[in-house]
Amino acid sequence: GAIGTSTFVWPAPSTSVSGFGYSSYHPAIDIGGAIGNAIYASDTGVVVYAGWNDYGYGNLIILDHGTGWQTLYAHLDTVKVGCGESVFQSSLIGTMGVTGNSSGPHLHFEMQSDTYG
């Protein structure tokens, strides 16, 4: 599969952010915006999950970058990629939404390290 660069780019057009860890467990940033705003792959990688998630994320995409990092994109309105698909950095992967446990349109963007935990 595609291997990332380990240099991550901003995944959404907006810079409006709610911080990391503002609730009891929130290992991510929430990037505000409007339903339908484009969501981009933060780095090159392979889609390892694409679809509905029953645990609050709503429509969810997980990319494995092959460098020890995975990125999660949650609460999406639409998912434009499928499992096993290779994506390049900054390519369109979905659109911002308000699915799952979400109080308004935003992107829940999370980075997970293979060595964490």
Describe this structure in words.
The chain has one domain (29-112): Glucose Permease (Domain IIA). The chain has no helices and 9 strands. The chain has strands at 17-18, 29-32, 38-40, 45-53, 58-64, 69-79, 86-87, 92-96, 106-113. Strands 1, 2, 3, 4, 5, 6, 7, 8 and 9 form a 9-stranded antiparallel beta sheet that branches. β4 (45-53) and β5 (58-64) form a beta hairpin. It is globular. 37% of the residues are buried.
Task: Lay out the secondary structure.
Elements: E1 17-18, E2 29-32, E3 38-40, E4 45-53, E5 58-64, E6 69-79, E7 86-87, E8 92-96, E9 106-113
Antiparallel strand pairs: 1-2, 2-9, 3-8, 4-5, 4-7, 5-6, 6-8, 6-9
Can you give me a brief rundown of this structure?
The protein has 117 residues and is mostly beta strands. The protein is 0% helix and 44% strand. It has a single domain (29-112), classed as Glucose Permease (Domain IIA) (Distorted Sandwich).
